[in-house]
Amino acid sequence: MPATRTLRAPAELVAAGLIAAADLAAVEVVAARYAVALTPAVAELIDPADPADPIARQYVPTAAELDTRPEEMSDPIGDAAYSPLNGLVHRYPDRVLLTPLLVCPVYCRFCFRRSRVGDGGATMTEADIDAALAYVLARPKLREVILTGGDPLMLPPARLRRLVARIAAIPHIEVVRVHSRVPLSDPGRVTPDLAAALQSGRGGAAVWLAVHVNHPRELSDKARDALALLADAGVPLLSQTVLLKGVNDSAEVLDVLMRALVRNRVRPYYLHHPDLAPGTAHLRPSIAEGQALMRALRGRLSGIAQPTYVLDIPGGFGKVPVGPDYWDGGVGEVRDPKGRTHTYPG
Ligand SMILES: *Cc1c(COP(=O)(O)O)cnc(C)c1O
Ligand code: SF4
Asked: In angstroms, what is the span from residue 271 Cα to ligand 1's centroid?
């Protein structure tokens, strides 16, 4: 029977047929460490009979998460070192992140903020928001404010509207970008009210939305309707995909996903190499594998369907594209999509 409310307790996952009763004890240990939640919209995408289900792999906790590797870190991209105020991360000269809340409708097993997100996760108070906006106002080099979390579309539309309007009213802010999984994980939250909240930036700043989507099956009928509502409201849409072993580490899956995004008016933006979040080794492919997949996409997909493959360098050193490179500047050779090399004078 389809779930009608969010599944959180490991016993509920057993009852829903998503984990075996024999795994309950281990999953209880995982759930005590990292937040667990599957919305009905996500749970109904899972085929419980398929032990390798790519949706289940993203959301259903497993004992593999208890295996923490020495290279893994609780703050893998070094947010803390660049966080001068509660809820604000300022790593790049022209843009800052704000994390108004650290809750999400679902909790991804590979989340890079998994040590912080969850129902007990800190939320910015009104005083924190005031302090963050004063920080932005005082720094005219800033051009973009990125709302992330947690999932900022969990904010009630009235609060979101006020926040977006206040940010967009800052004279030097040109872009407000919202990063969210809500259109897929809880599409019922995408209402005309929510779209209007995003539009409250009009006149002051352009409001962009980047949706986090990893598998074509996440683009359900309801999710596609949610994306259409936002696109029709004039919100430019981007996507971010995390490359995950056993979920989307195949050229076929990425091909179908990127095409489906473009067809739904979402421009593929980033393919993220997974961060070194604790207990996620079983989900991380190698960078060489990621590069081979990107090469395969270059040959077979439209340019507007090509994401950039990026790594966020551990320690807070920033995101960089990790190839593959087609131009070998040293020897004056360029590689074509089929892998053949040609000379070019440089
Ligand atoms: C990822 C990130 C951004 C956004 O980077 P883009 O390359 O513009 O998408 C901004 N600030 C911080 C701290 C980040 O980690
Ligand atoms: S939606 Fe984003 S912030 Fe929330 S658990 Fe997933 S990866 Fe983490």
From this structure: 13
Segment-wise mean pLDDT, segments of 10 residues, the chain, 346 residues: 84 97 98 97 96 97 97 93 96 97 96 89 90 98 96 96 98 98 98 96 95 98 98 98 98 98 98 98 98 95 98 95 87 89 87
Contact predicate 16/43, CB 8 Å? yes
What is the 8-class DSSP label of residue 335? E
Pocket around ligand 1 at a 6 A CB cut-off: 77, 89, 91-92, 95, 97, 146, 319
Q: Residue 111: which of 8, 256, 214 has the closest Cα?
A: 214
Q: How far is it between the farthest Cα atoms of the chain? A: 65
CATH class assigned to 80-343: alpha beta
pTM of the prediction?
A: 0.96
Cα dihedral 274/280/283/284 (nearest 10): 50
Estimate to the nearest angstrom the gap between the alpha carbon of 212 and the chain centroid. 4
Q: Respond yes or no: is residue 104 known to be catalytic.
A: yes
Domain assignments of the chain as residue spans, ordered by start: 10-66, 80-343
